Amino acid sequence: MDPSRAAASTASSGRPRDGVGPPPDFPAGLRVLVVDDDPTCLKILDRMLRKCLYDVTTCTRAAAALAMLRERRGAFDVVLSDVYMPDMDGFKLLEHIGLEMDLPVIMMSADDGRDVVMKGVTHGACDYLIKPVRMEALRNIWQHVVRKRRNELKELEHSGSAEENDRQKRALEDGDNASSASEGNWKNVKRRKDGKEEEEVEEREDPSTLKKPRVVWSVDLHQQFVAAVNQLGVDKAVPKKILELMKVPRLTRENVASHLQKYRLYLRRLSVPQHEARLDTPYTGASEATFRSVGSFDGLDTQALAVSGQFPPQSLTTLHSGPRRVTTTGIGLPSIDQVGFFNSSAQMANASNIRPAMMQQMNNKQLNFLSGPSTNMESGQHGQSQQLVESYGNMGLRVGEGASGFFNLPSSQRTSTSFPGGTINVNLSNSLPMQMTQQGQQFSVCQQQNRIHISMPRQLQTREQLLNEILGEYDSRLSTPMGHQILSNEVSGHVSGRGRSNMNVRTSLREGYMNASSYGPLSHALYADFSNSGMNESTGSCYPLASGAGTTNFTSIGMLQEALPPVGNVETLGNSVSVKGANDFVPDYDLLSDVRQSKSQDWKSQNIDVSYQSAQQLGSKQSNIDFGSSRLAHEDSIAAIKDDKSRNACTVRKEIFSVRTEIEHEKGDCTAQRNGTILVENSLRVMAEGMSDLSYQEVLFDDNIIQNELMNVVGKKQQEGVGQVDPEFNFDGYSWDDIQV
Amino acid sequence: MEYSNLRRQAAYMKKSLFDQGYLDEQFYQLEELQDDVSPNFVEEVVTLFFRDSARLISNIEQALDKCPQEFSKLNAFVHQLKGSTSSIGASRLKNECTRFRDYCDEENLEGCLKSFQKLKREHAVLRQKLESYFQLLRQVGPVEKATRPSM
């Protein structure tokens, strides 16, 4: 800013750099010349650099800077220049400096457009900092000085002189000047546009440990190289030809070869940004496998899903995609396991419409999730996938997000397939959290949910069984459509096994899960208020949720029975249901009733459908609500499961539902609902099924405890009431209408 | 007491500036640069900023008056302005600059004019707020950063 100061500063620190090496207190005392026409920025930079103990000289005009540099050769170590300056273009200055003084130049600008940064790189800037410049960024600028010095030395020596030189060169070659625009480092450029001085020396390879003259791949040289490669064709470029085209003396074929190798790697990296996971493949594979089984469901599910809007096809996609991302770690692969799991469930899945859809999604995701580190579920990536992922991760509970909680609850690997149908107790819970949030529900809980039973498509039969098992008491009734939502919610709540009649809607899956009658009211109860234990009670564990509270809850209900897969849904449903339930009850009911008919399978599928549908309806609401409820439900269910199968559903539900209404607050309640672990589980399952209810996931997640409980419950349930599921699923006289809240 | 009250007031004022989006975390960076060697650094920078930005704004105004179609020129001006606003952490002002620049890119004169008016307003408001803030700080004295009252 003021030349006087500059002069002063330079004078004081005018140690000539003779290349012998940095002074002992390096980088203190680094002589920096800053050029910026903006006085404010200049002042700030000046201060910052001084704080770094550098020797600062400031200039507002490029011309003045150049003059200064010329006059005092060797008086500066590094130049910081702004890009947009009135008198001279920053790049021009850069070029001049590079040609005349060969000092490292760092560009700065508020402009972080890629082209501009690229320009900086190609013009030879060592780095490019984005304004506002932070102190941290300035602290490391000394590295450019060192690097450049070493390179110069190497070049001087021009042959495998010191090993360190080689290394230096290598470093330079590899390019990784921490900042973005390291010379000849295309990688850096690409990466660090903002000039973060991260030392990402990507390629620390050692192309030649031999003492070869190290070639410095300067920007120009690299450009020539690239031109030659392009001319030849990237695939066809061979070092020999490149060398010929480049016509650079003293460049050996080996140099070119190694450089080409790096370049190719770089290109490859560019084109495959996120395929680390490659989950897709595994997913698809796995999912396909599962899907096959689920196939039957698929139709249903997809529809259901579609209906429920929970798992729109996209979710599938997302799921796929999601898992990829998420599961890169492993969800994809493990999915195979899951697939198997799903397959089994798939069988059940006839009914589980949800399941198929979910399965698919889940499969993709789940597989990923299940198999893999459920944590991967970091679904955050795609709403849909997330959902799946989440659910899977969480145990698939997450599914909720887009897919309304596909519930696949990717819950961690636990694939406790206790659910015959599909509750995949994937304990993915990890990922769930991420996804859950999507819906805003914060499924972050998912993580905990490792135990989330992925109640994936509740193959009604299996599911029921599962639910039954889980719920023990849970009336599968509840799980049916109405219950789904409600169930899910409720289940969670009820599952707590408290037999809180309402919630237990589904827990009593055994009892005929879909006791329509019971559900009817249950559903209502579920939604309207879980307190309608009346509903549940009648059904035993009917989760009101399941009753098809129009919401996916029902699914959960169904699940409750078996493996609470419906629960999952239910939960989600429940959650959503609770909120929504009231509203959308009706539709589900119908489904539920149908479901009932089919009992084991039908209702499941129906449930799923219902749940989905209801879920759909609830959809929006659900998310929030479900979340809350799911949480509760989850907890409840889990609790329920643990406590007593029978009770769980109902009680859980009730609590869940009521909670759900508040949903937002639900979460807190959920814990209360812990009792209904079983329910929770179921609900979880239900939810997983696709209850987009993220909330479900949430529930699931929260429920580590629940999970545990659920697991316990489920386990028990399995032993106990597997068989009962079927009958119970029949929602006798279950009329959704009744359930209407 | 009064001292700590003032301090609290200052702290509160600062917090509200942040909460309302007038300032962002770059401002913290500035504060970090203040120390014994430069005890009034932040205020100096801010003063400098307002002086310089006032100049730029008047340049823009002139340009809009005389040669409004020269969007590239406007763009250059506002780019400069944006650079300094972001350097001091004037978040709202910076956003307005961005919007103005977008209008310039679109060559939308009307948008530019409207945005410019907003920009001027933001500038004035920020100036006034920061002025009061620094005034308060001055009263509080050099220990405003201290956690314990030094009275």
From TrEMBL, chain A:
GO terms for molecular function: DNA binding; DNA-binding transcription factor activity. The modification 4-aspartylphosphate is found at residue 82. Residues 1-14 have a biased composition (Low complexity). GO terms for cellular component: nucleus. Residues 211-268 form the HTH myb-type domain. It is found in: Nucleus. Residues 156-173 have a biased composition (Basic and acidic residues). Its main location: nucleus. Pfam families: Myb_DNA-binding (PF00249), Response_reg (PF00072). This is Two-component response regulator ARR1-like isoform X1. It comes from Phoenix dactylifera (Date palm). The lineage of its organism: Eukaryota, Viridiplantae, Streptophyta, Embryophyta, Tracheophyta.
UniProtKB/TrEMBL annotation, chain B:
One of its GO terms (biological process) is cytokinin-activated signaling pathway. GO terms for molecular function: histidine phosphotransfer kinase activity; protein histidine kinase binding. The keyword Ribonucleoprotein does not apply. The modification Phosphohistidine is found at residue 79. Keywords: Cytokinin signaling pathway, Phosphoprotein, Two-component regulatory system. It is found in: Cytoplasm, Cytosol; Nucleus. InterPro entries: AHP1-5/YPD1 (IPR045871), HPT_dom_sf (IPR036641), Sig_transdc_His_kin_Hpt_dom (IPR008207). CDD domains: HPT. The keyword Repressor does not apply. Residues 38-133 form the HPt domain. GO terms for cellular component: cytosol; nucleus. Functions as a two-component phosphorelay mediator between cytokinin sensor histidine kinases and response regulators (B-type ARRs). Plays an important role in propagating cytokinin signal transduction. Functions as a two-component phosphorelay mediators between cytokinin sensor histidine kinases and response regulators (B-type ARRs). Plays an important role in propagating cytokinin signal transduction. Histidine-containing phosphotransfer domain (HPt) contains an active histidine that mediates the phosphotransfer. This is Histidine-containing phosphotransfer protein. The lineage of its organism: Eukaryota, Viridiplantae, Streptophyta, Embryophyta, Tracheophyta. The gene is LOC103721360.
